[in-house]
Design brief:
single chain, 2 strands, 58% helix, disordered C terminus, two-stranded antiparallel ribbon, mainly alpha, 316 residues
Length: 316
């Protein structure tokens, strides 16, 4: 506040005289901010025995007067834009790859034949091993050969199916099953070693469960996938349950020959599987299509940005 402003605080003549003497002490024209001094400080400046005869100015008015000319008014920083909401609506299932019901039936029939390879030989395998010169030890090796071959192929074929076409992997597996079952049906001429090798090849070719499951995942949408996987499990256990009984029916077949090949209860299980495998190979190569245009089954869904969900009402 300037000296001229301070003169207005002393309207009485006596007070003004003291104020004039005070100005002489500090120098006329020196800015004095008396409004920021306390009452006791102002009383000491006026002198002993003097009382204040001026009106106190509100602090808000003084602060506005002293700061309005020197300090610019603050400006509000612009608030950042609100974040773009992310839609929580479930994504629509990806469209299923090009497929037909015939393709799925062919693939499921291959699975049924693969799962039948264990049970169909159970009623006659013990006698077959004995007829080619084997004993209980060789019987154990023959049974274990099938499981060993299937263990190796389940891992190997499952990995190969991720790098190659499903149809190609299934075709190779079916062809191996044809060769293995043909060797099984003719092991009477090659002995126990040939029988052992045939069971290993059959087990190796029958390890298509992981490949078929991956194929079904690829050609079905998420909405229908559970139902189709249940069908795959049903076909698998159907082969476990039905084929041992079917193998017992083959024991009624009499001995005869076809083009020099022996047909009897020991060899007919091999031909029973070799012929359907060979027939299935043709429609597999001609009709079944590999899934195209779909992301890998393990790929996470991509969120959709910029879409807002409708705000539910209070009563919802």
């Amino acid at each position: 506040m300037s000296v001229q402003d301070a003169d207005d605080y002393f309207p009485e003549e006596q007070d003004r005289s003291y104020w004039q003497s005070f100005k002489t002490q500090i120098g006329v024209g020196t800015p004095v901010n008396l409004r920021r001094r306390s009452v006791s400080e102002r009383q000491s400046l006026l002198g002993p025995g003097r009382t204040q005869s001026y009106t106190e100015v509100p602090a808000q008015t003084t602060q506005a007067v002293t700061t309005s000319a020197s300090v610019p008014p603050p400006t509000l920083a612009s608030s950042p834009p609100p974040p773009t909401p992310v839609s929580t609506t479930p994504l629509a299932p990806a469209p299923a790859a090009q497929r037909s019901l015939v393709d799925l039936l062919i693939v499921l029939f291959i699975l049924l034949l693969s799962e039948s390879a264990r049970g169909i030989v159970l009623p006659t395998l013990v006698l077959y091993v004995g007829s080619v010169g084997g004993d209980a030890t060789w019987l154990g090796w023959t049974v274990g050969a099938f499981s060993t071959g299937r263990f190796v192929s389940t891992i190997g074929l499952g990995y190969i199916s991720t790098q190659s076409a499903y149809k190609r992997v299934l075709a190779v597996s079916v062809l191996i099953c044809v060769i293995g079952n043909a060797l099984y049906a003719t092991s009477y001429a090659g002995g126990i070693i040939m029988l052992l090798i045939s069971r290993f090849l059959i087990g190796f070719g029958a390890g298509t469960l992981s490949v078929i499951r991956a194929y079904v995942v690829q050609v079905t949408s998420s909405a229908e996938r559970t139902a189709y996987m249940a069908v795959v499990g049903a076909v698998q256990f159907l082969g476990f349950a039905i084929m041992p009984g079917a193998g017992s029916l083959l024991t009624w077949i009499p001995y005869f020959e076809v083009f020099g090949l022996h047909m009897n209860p020991f060899t007919t299980p091999g031909w029973t599987l070799a012929i359907p495998h060979h027939i299935t190979l043709l429609p597999l190569l001609a009709n079944v299509k590999d899934p195209v245009g779909l992301p890998p089954p393990s790929a996470p869904p991509v969120p959709v940005y910029g879409q807002t969900d409708p705000i539910p009402s209070q009563g919802a």
